[in-house]
Amino acid sequence: MDRVYVEGVDIASLIKAFNQFEKFRVNLDTEQAKAGTILAFGCVFELCWKTMQRILYHKGLTEYGLKPIFRAAALGGMIHDPKCWFEFLEKRMLVLQVYPEVFTDDVIKIFPEFSKEVASFLQNIMKD
Description:
- The structure is a single chain.
- This protein is mainly α.
- It has one domain (about 5-125): Nucleotidyltransferases  domain 2 (Four Helix Bundle (Hemerythrin (Met), subunit A), Up-down Bundle).
- It has helices at about 10-25, 30-60, 65-75, 80-95, 105-110, 110-125, and strands at about 5, 10.
- A two-stranded antiparallel ribbon has the order 1-2.
- The two termini are about 20 Å apart.
């Protein structure tokens, strides 16, 4: 994939990971598929917040900590509502637990909203 830059930040990896997540999330009929999709969710989530942080940095804002990054991203028009990203963070933390399979269905429930929010985030940052 060619490099795609927004505010001096290469987002090609994020786009590629999100496309992979989208392919995975339509097929959740086995435990293996669920596990792979949850792994893809984690990867996309990490790339999203790191991209937000880098874009904020290029705009002269230095934010540390995920919640402040999400708040600043909302103020900057990158995302609509930081509260849903707080929920994604909570679900991301669940899958990092020692026994993540206990939380599989709880995490999978947010995939449609997560997909919509990531797509919106990408659209918002690429329109500038």
